Amino acid sequence: MIPTPGQPKAHYGLGAANYHTGETVVLIRKHKRRQEIAELLQALVDKHPTGTIYVAWDNFSAHQDDEVEAVVRSAAGQLVLLYLPTYSPWLNPIEMLWRHFRREVTHCELFETVKALIEASEDFFHRYNKNPDKVLSIIGAHPA
User: Fold this and answer.
1) DSSP conformational letter for 87
2) Which tens digit of pLDDT belongs to each residue from 44-64?
3) Number of helices and strands (H, E) in the chain?
4) Class level of CATH domain 12-86+94-139
5) What is the DSSP letter of 63?
6) How far does CA 7 lie from the centroid of its chain?
7) Cα–Cα distances in Å, from 3 out to 61, 113, 115?
8) In this structure, are residues 22 and 140 in contact, taking their beta carbons and an 8 Å threshold?
9) Which H or E run contains 83?
10) 140 in the Ramachandran plot: left (φ > 0), alpha (ψ -120 to 50) or beta?
11) Strand (E) or helix (H) holding 56
């Protein structure tokens, strides 16, 4: 008899990369619903309390919700959402970082526990936040 792990315990990475500095903000959560999307936007506003924050993202249904809209309204023009065309992930820089993350952290890897996977994920983003030029290179940005 071969033991099976049962139902997968999904976790999701929600993140943003600063196109100018290479800094990332990544949240790892059990869900990627409107509450988590709003939490990410609020984290961006908290991290950058001055200036305008432009967020490029797709037309995922959770992106267009009252909770998300509440964060945008409370940011009083500081947060600008740029909706990308449907089915065009190559236009979103964070997608390039996710691809790199999968290659380095999860490709051909089997983690004993979900906790170990989350720790490896957090370690990846912690390391890359220490080397923002590498993030800029991955997302196709050119530092000034």
Assistant:
1) T
2) 999 999 889 999 888 776 666
3) 5, 4
4) alpha beta
5) G
6) 25
7) 37, 15, 20
8) no
9) strand 79-83
10) left
11) strand 53-57
